[in-house]
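Students often ask why we bother encoding 3D structure as a string. The short answer is that it lets us treat folding as translation between two languages. Here is a chain of 215 residues written in the first language.
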Amino acid sequence: MIRRLARLVAPTALVLALAACGGDDAGGALSTDEWCERAENINSLSDDLDAIDPFDPEGIEVAYSRFREAVDEVRAVAPDEISDDIETLYAGVADIDDALADADYSFLDVDLSFMSGREGAMDTASERVRNYNVRECGFDERDAGGTDDAFDFGAGSARDQLVDELVASGFTETEARCIAADIAIETLGTDDQAAIFEVFDTCDISLERLGELGG
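And here it is in the second language, the structure alphabet:
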């Protein structure tokens, strides 16, 4: 899920240089040279969202809140050709940040089902911003990479989808819901077998039962 969100909003990171280097107090769109000069300094930020630790709610809150604030600051000075695309991307960034805030910045619990009908528009806007910076600024075309196809925005939160995956693996729905409800996001980011088995114990899932599933 982190990768898919990052791919949708990453081109917007190119405009964060405007906030980092200081905005144009006079208002209005920046010249192409000014846009490119400032964007070039932080071109690498387009990968930063992809590098966020999904098991660190505090880190997620800081990254997305700053990202949203910075993009908001530059909406009025984007080049005319991509100003509408920046608005589209900002709307997505803002709504994602709001949804994350509602879930205490837990990627396990955030409901991003609203994104299922907006991916196309955001993909198009992202591509237009990317192409503009390649054409006007001389940036190298960057491999957009794959998306996290295992995550379906329309299927509920990651915790909901975890239940579905556990049931598909052979757990009963009661067992799956107990595991999903009890497991902590921090546990998913570690190899802490003891913590995982503690969840199984809480849900009355014995080693024999696990053996049945594995057999």
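Translate back mentally: Confidence is low (pLDDT under 50) at residues 6-26, 143-149. Keep this in mind for the problem set.
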